[in-house]
Write the structure tokens for this entry.
Amino acid sequence: MRKHLSAILYIAILLVIAFLVFYLSCVPDVMTTSRGADSQNVEAVLGRPFDAMDVPAGNYSGIVRLGGNRYALVSDKAEHGGYFIFNIDIDDSGNIVSVSSRGFRKLEEENIDEEAIAYDKDNHNIYIGKEETTEIVRYDILDGRKNGQVVVTDYRDRGLDNRTIESLTFDTKRMSVFTINEGPLVGDNGLMLRLMEFTPNLNLKKQYTYILDMPLDDSPTNDDSHVFGVAELLSLGDGTLLVLEREFKMAGMKVGSWVMNKIFRITPGNPEKTFVTGWRTVLGASDSGIANYEGMCLGPKLPDGRQVIILCADSQDRYMGVLHDWFRTIVL
């Protein structure tokens, strides 16, 4: 009897492994097919992921470059409101070689789900997006004083819990602050998002429609097991934005979970979007490379003139030792 049970258990394990292999193979690791206007197509090179083990475990949700190799990062579960300062060093190929912490800049006593950060260097203003209150707050980076704020009322009144402000970027060409709701608002089409453009003083200028790609997985969305939407925006300084679409599928047994990331380039007001690059991370039986990328910013330019983009992932404080504080680059 025991032999029969052992055989059945062995066969069941093999079937589970076979299923996981098939399941994971249904989603490509790297996507290279471009879409949209050819005039915006650029070759994108994915850098190697970097496990930042020398920084505090965090929930890093947004990143922006302050200057040189100094970057400000927000964590949605930090003890106080404000930002961490990291040094990030990149080699001449565009790969990250080190990430180190330089402390925390406290701006508020309480962290109200800080998910995004942007920087207007010329006017020394830092903008932080707070999802719990659906507001954007502006601070003077020199003295830390709060000097402006706005509640995004559409997001507050019609947004689903934890699906509103996840992104923020400052466009130096348009002199505008942009944000977009992570997931559709109640009453909107299931793939429609609202891209908001504000003045530097946080007065609403314009609102645009953005249409998400169809999710790869057809199970119900907007619960903790399957989420898709926009995780981040980034201004390239030429009037165009990069949009990071992120789909997170949590498998029932955790092993087999995956995150698909797709980056598009858009011009606000133009409904077309150009696919730039995409990649998937997975949680396998022997693979803990799954990474939920939520922050994206401009890095330095390489000696050959190409632009480095830096991304950071939310590790949920390195949850159970399985998740890691991954960083990676894209070179355009």
